[in-house]
Amino acid sequence: MKTIIIFFLFMSFLTIHVIAQSSDEGEIRRLEKHWTKLLDEGDTTALLKIWSKEYVVNNPNGRIVTPKDIVSLMKSGHVFPAVKRIIEKITFNQNIAIVMGEELQQPANMIPDENEWISRRFTNVWIKTDKDWQLASRQSSVVIKDGH
């Protein structure tokens, strides 16, 4: 009887953990699309709410930038090219979500054909606070194709 009770307690805990993780994964996927849309729209006010105060980016140009740098660039008129993000893996570790995958960035000449877009690899790190998830750091690198 004791074994059956322990088994059911374990299964209940496991079910609760899986449901919570599924809910968090859905929220992270939603936030990935949302913050990309905000970047496309140039909504710095909303972006500053999603980014943590310590948000830091290692960008494809090899520069480490902060929200202050990004907002300054956007307010000077810079428009980021469109990006399509393909999430390949989301890993959770306590209150941290690590999102990895491929990005396709529209080139500066604004070619609409995604087959011509620049391929990059990305990692985004989200931290869950008492209130919500915030983007804490990001890294993106251009994929160098053989022979180029």
From TrEMBL:
InterPro entries: DUF4440, NTF2-like_dom_sf. Keywords: Signal. The keyword RNA-binding does not apply. SUPFAM superfamilies: NTF2-like (SSF54427). Residues 28-135 form the DUF4440 domain. Residues 1-20 form the signal peptide. The keyword Signal applies. It comes from the Bacteria. Pfam families: DUF4440. This is Nuclear transport factor 2 family protein. It comes from Belliella calami. The lineage of its organism: Bacteria, Pseudomonadati, Bacteroidota, Cytophagia, Cytophagales.
